[in-house]
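Tutorial, part two.
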Amino acid sequence: MPLQKRPDISSEIFASFTMSKIDRKIIDSMTTEQVEAVRAALLAADRGKRHPIDIRLNIPLYFARYYLVLFAGRDKRRGTLLKEAVRKNAQDKRSGSMMILLMGMLIIFGLLLIGLLTAYLIKSEMGIDIFPDKHLEDIILEWLN
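Running the prediction step on this input gives:
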């Protein structure tokens, strides 16, 4: 099978399919000139995506139809891939910063809790009563009720 360029019918199908996805009310509110301009832009965008090697095969079997598509050509995605990598890296840094902040807050809260409990135990062992006739258990039960 010789390699052939994709026929223009493919661009037409792409444009028609994309235009069919636009809400009918929006299409009706546009002038004929506007609709044709959008359609022309879709056709131009599809032509820009052509590949030097474009093989499309249909494989009809008794129980189903399958297709095989092979595109090959120069990789023009480098700029897009770099932008995506930069965006992902920035997102990873933000996520990492948030995780470090959260872990730091949990550690500080835990150390503060341990420090307060230690101070309470030392105070109790020394026999110091900050609240006469009350203990920590009594205060906690009052707060819960």
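The radius of gyration is 35 Å. In part three we will examine how such features are distributed along the chain.
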